[in-house]
Amino acid sequence: MTEQRESLEQRGPTAQTGLHRVVRMTFRTEAVPEFLEIFADVVADIRRQPGCLHVELMRDAQWPDVYATFSVWKSEAALEAYRQTPFFRKTWSLTKALFAAPPRAESYGPVSTTQEPASKRNR
Q: Is the per-residue pLDDT at 9 higher than 90?
């Protein structure tokens, strides 16, 4: 059990910190190459934003026009500060013009898995 806890704690910079953000985007088929070019051009700058700990792009396993960004931020305030920058506003404006459907954004916080469950403590 200790090994399992340690592996959960050692999953890298995202394991126990910050705000985890997933933005799911559906693009028009013909717009996918343009989106990929935009993302390639801006991803390094996103990673350099204050409070950004991690950014990656994923594609849906079933739907080739559906992509998601996964990012980790030091805090909700860091994400919100980034969202107010001219850089974000320009990038988002270029990106949302390519959508086939409204995007869906969700934020998550980490859950500690280092405590023993109550069901095991009461035995």
A: no
